[in-house]
């Protein structure tokens, strides 16, 4: 398992323990599209500085909290707090990372169409190292 996959697996375990919503990795299945609160972990990009013997990598992840509630910002609040606490419970993500840094949160809430889900996206950068150009530790 690569360090990147170890980080994502560690986060999946931590987010799976969040009680305020149901956790999914990468994508929300069609049969769960109207669940109360969904938590979705997505890798977004990875930046690499391979100028030394060890490659310094920064994995950007987004954790989406999705709801169809009438008052989505209120419905998401507890879940967002639990997700954030789960991410920062171990900044080294099970020993595979150097550090975890919060980038920010973005909301997408339709003011006119309640059939559209409301989404809050929490973004984090996770720094780790690999040997040279390899993806392995």
Could you describe the 3D structure shown?
A hairpin with a 4-residue loop joins strand 2 (37-49) and strand 3. It is elongated, with a radius of gyration of 16 Å. It has two helices and five strands. The model has no long low-confidence stretch (mean pLDDT 91). 23% of the residues lie in helices and 40% in strands. 26% of the residues are buried. With 137 residues, the chain is of the alpha+beta class. The protein has helices at residues 3-16, 72-88; strands at residues 22-25, 37-49, 54-67, 99-108, 118-131.
A few lines on this structure:
The protein is of the alpha+beta class and 137 residues long. The chain contains 2 helices and 5 strands, in the order H-E-E-E-H-E-E.
Observed structural traits:
137 residues; elongated; 5 strands; alpha+beta
Number of helices: 2
Helical residue percent band: 10-25%
Structural class: alpha+beta
Helix-strand string: HEEEHEE
Strand content: 35-45%
Strands ordered across the widest β-sheet: 1-2-3-5-4
Describe the global form: elongated
Q: How far is the first residue's CA from the last residue's CA?
A: 9 Å
Assembly state of the chains shown: single chain
For the residues shown, what is the average pLDDT?
91
Radius of gyration (CA) equals 16 Å
The residue ranges in which pLDDT falls below 50 over 5 or more consecutive positions are: none
Task: List how many beta strands DSSP finds.
Answer: 5
Largest sheet features:
5 strands, mixed
